[in-house]
Design a protein that fits this description.
By secondary structure, this protein is mostly helical. The chain contains six helices and two strands; from the N terminus they run αββααααα.
Length: 159
């Protein structure tokens, strides 16, 4: 619960203010969804995603786009995680660099984050004529968020 509050505060107070070149924005609360244990049900993931999203929407004055995108990312997280892990894992398996190694974790996170941003910017722009902006924003924001995720992994205490 403490991580939820800390990531939410960091998102609302700091990361929502970062807009590189008018295209790239970091949504750091996605780390929480990525790092929930494997046994977390799809419904629980979607509730967490919706909570993060709706609170971010309230503070950033966006009409539900973060909540929709985070809920969708949470919906697809477990099948994506299953593609990068084997079936015999313990129930308390927590995705991360330590458990999945750098390559697997980066690809897993990048796919989930890309889903989040593709939906977020599609809902925000809502017009096909902005396809180039959609693609640039999705790629730029995914890369920026992945940078923060990698940095966060270096500062995560090893158990």
């Amino acid at each position: 619960m403490r991580n939820f509050v800390l990531l939410l505060l960091a998102q609302v107070l700091v990361f929502s203010q970062i807009h590189l070149f008018g295209y790239a924005t970091a949504v750091i609360f996605t780390i929480f969804l990525l790092k929930l244990p494997r046994h977390t049900t799809k419904n629980e993931l979607m509730v967490w995603g919706f909570l993060f999203g709706i609170i971010t929407d309230m503070f950033c004055n966006t009409p539900g786009i973060h909540s929709a995108a985070a809920t969708a990312m949470a919906f697809f997280r477990n099948p994506i995680l299953s593609a990068f892990t084997h079936k015999g894992l313990p129930e308390d398996f927590i995705p991360g660099v330590k458990s999945m190694k750098w390559g697997g974790y980066i690809v897993y996170a990048a796919i989930c984050i890309s889903i989040f941003y593709a939906l977020l910017f599609t809902l925000e722009l809502f017009a096909i004529r902005y396809l180039a902006t959609l693609i640039i924003s999705t790629i730029g924001s995914t890369l920026l968020t992945m940078l923060f995720i990698v940095v966060a992994e270096f500062f995560t205490p090893k158990k």
